[in-house]
Every structure is written in C-alpha cells, then in structure tokens.
Give the backbone structure.
Amino acid sequence: MKKSSIAAHSWSLWIPLLIALAVGPLVESVQACGYALAPTYVDFAIANGFATVDADGNVTYEPGAGPLEDLSGDGMSNFQKWQGWESVRNGVPVYYGWNSATAAGYGANAFDGPCLDQVDSNFDGVSDFVNWRAGTNPHSSDTDGDGIPDAWEIRTGLDPRDDGTVNPLNHPHADPDGDGLTNLEECLGPGNTTFPSLPAATVDNLLTLPMFGEPGANYTLPLNFDSSGDNLIDSFGYRWGSISPFEANAPNEDMDGDGLTTFREQCVHPLLARFWQAGEIPDSPAIRFVPAGMTFGVAGFTTPHRRQGLIAPGYMNRANFDEAGNRWEAPGALMNNQGVVLWGHPVQYPGSPYPLDPDDTNAAVNRWTNPNNAFSGGQLQLLPDGWLIEHGLNPLDQRLLTDEGFINPSGPFGDPDGDGLLNLEEYRGQDGYRIDFVTGTGDETSPWITRVVNRKVDEPFGA
C-alpha cells in the first residue's frame, strides 16, 4: 500500500492550518489507548507507530495516519484527535487529548483523548467525534458521574458535563420542566433501575441512542413537560398504561365513556385545572421557557424540541399546599434538597420510592382520574367520574365513610345538599335508569343545587 510522506523540515508550514482545524466542542471516555503524549502530531505519530522518519528527516505515515487524514473515519482528523479538547466537568477545567504541552497545564485533570483507530473508544454508543463535539470524555460513558449516561443527556439537552454542581437543574433528581418527573426518571423511565446498553457507535451511526420520536427512543424530554406534543403531560402518560408518553395520543377521546376526555381526566389534577383550559394550552405565564441556563445542545445529535416547563421547576411534585393538601397556593421554587417531594409524586410504579402510603409524606398521591376506568374513586363503581366532576364532587374518593367515620359527602350515599336524596339517587333520577354514564332520561337532579352556579373556580373538589 502507498504511504504518504512529509519532509520534516516542512512540518512547520502545516501548524497554522491544522490548529485552525482543531477547533470543536467537548467529551470523555473510560479505557485508555496506551498512546504516548507528544508536543507535536509528528512526534506523536512516530512515538506511537503511526509514522517513521528516515535519516534525512523525511516522515512517512502509515496509510490513513497523516495529520489531515481520518484513520477511524469518524469525521475528526488525526491531528484533531491528537490536539484533543478542553472542557469543564462539574465546574473543573479538564483536558482530553494527547498534546503533552496542553496536558502539562492541566496536571491531574488531563485525560487520554480519543483513540485514532477506533470510532468509539469505550464502546458506549457515543463516538469520539460526538464526544469532541459535546466536550465529554471519550473514555467514560458518564462524564459528570451523575448516573445518567452521556448518550441520554446529549440527546435530551441536559449537560453531560454537569451533575448539578454548576446548575442545580442538571441534577439527576431535579425537575426543570416541572412535569413531576425527575431528570433521571425522564431518561430512564419511572420504576426502571438500569440504563440499557447501547450498540457501539459506527461511522454510519455516531450516536446509537435514537432521537426522541424515533423507534426505540423510550425516554421523555426533561426540558419539555409534554414531550410528544399531545397536550398530555409526561407524568400523566406514564401513570396510565394505555397512554404512551413517547408518542402522540388522542387527548379528546373518551376511552372509558364517562363523559371526560383523556385531556379532562388529566386536568382533574388541581395544579393543572387552574390554568389548562378549553382543551388546549393557553398562551399565559403558566407556560414558561426552561431557564436560559439549560442551553446545552449538540447540533445534529440533540433532539430538536421547544424547551418549555410548567410554571416553576419542580411544580408538579414540589408545589406548596395548605394543611389539607388539596388547595392550590403559590408554587414552590426548586428545593435545595434535590429529590425531596413535598406534596406527593404524581407517578406510582412498582418499587417506587414514593409508595401509596397515606402516612408517608413522600408517598405517591394519585391526583388523576383514570382514563381507562369510569370509576376512579374506589371499588363501589356506582358514580362515574364525569358526573362527579360536573357536580363538584370528588371522583378520587368514593368511600362510604370518611376517616372520622362520617358518611362521605362525595360518596354514593352522601347528601351534600340535604334534600333527602342520596348522590346515587340524584344521579339515577326518579326512574332509576340512565342510558349511559353521560346520558340520562331527563329526571335526574343535582346534588349541589346552589353550588352548581356559585362554586369558586379555585375551590377543590368536594370542599
């Protein structure tokens, strides 16, 4: 095979051009290639067996090992790989590369750079080229050590170089879009404990985790509360098995025939019912752009999406409520103690750290009605959700008795207006018959004669 050569005395002519080509972003990796550092690419190539020099000072490179060539075929020149890149990891300046002069200035914070003959040095699904563009470590699958692999952070727009030390919203247990799912839960999925292994990157697929919306992309976007754009927030999608948070659903369908569309089942949640009206997202301060500090992205590799959140970071699981736990107050800002849930996590799943335990202040709290079941409030299944909501009763509590042992005013045998007719009788009417959950025969009555017209819009159901 033909070998390329450059006279040693002419090497200095290449330096300005090659330095100009060496500009690019950041990344990092876990296993070393065993290369020796050197002050120039020529010295590096000779020291590591990519080139030889004869008695006259002529340098001969192995095929593909010239400074402007690309031995691994990943889009980075060999010179760029040797030159490496400078970055910042958790607030600390670091260097990844084989340039001994640059590495000397970083001391213990200088790390091996990309391998010249491999497209993905540590086989983590993120090519060395993407590591270079993102400023991450080509020898580590998790540059910042926060438990979320670089591939997921690059795809979703989280910063793979920051575990929350620089910006708390990058912390794995922060919730920058306020949808009730932490960054870790958005990337891994609630209830899952281990990220799947990715195929190693190739020259045809430089980042093997699919973009959101592509087949196999089973994650949601931590910087958008409605990843699929269907007006159903991500935590609601995870809560019910029939609704996928990964793809657009039909929000105006009434799957259980109870008179509530899937969108309205979602808006029973008091934090959403206050501002999400008329079946669509209003143009109001309730929808906010994710803070300007969350701007990480790698062109061509980060999923393009509008970065938007609900009212405040951590809104759905860190909002402040009154003593009863059911009346909206000013939403809390991001808590200093990351991951602490003040009101109750909106998603329950097997192995959840937030069990459905009423005595546990960190327990998951079911604030949704079930789009798959017309009777969300218990096993009696006598009053459907739609009728209860229409009449200001609580669809999530259909017990016969309250904790204090009194008849539950929202239950089927309650009589909140004191007219002698139980809620079940008001629902069924004088003939005791309904065509379906939504349609009666015209003789039905209201359990809240005055409340129908006088109820305050911000008053909780059943109050």
About this structure: The radius of gyration is 30 Å. The longest strand covers residues 85-89. The chain is about 15% helix and 10% strand. The CA atoms of residues 176 and 250 lie 26 Å apart.
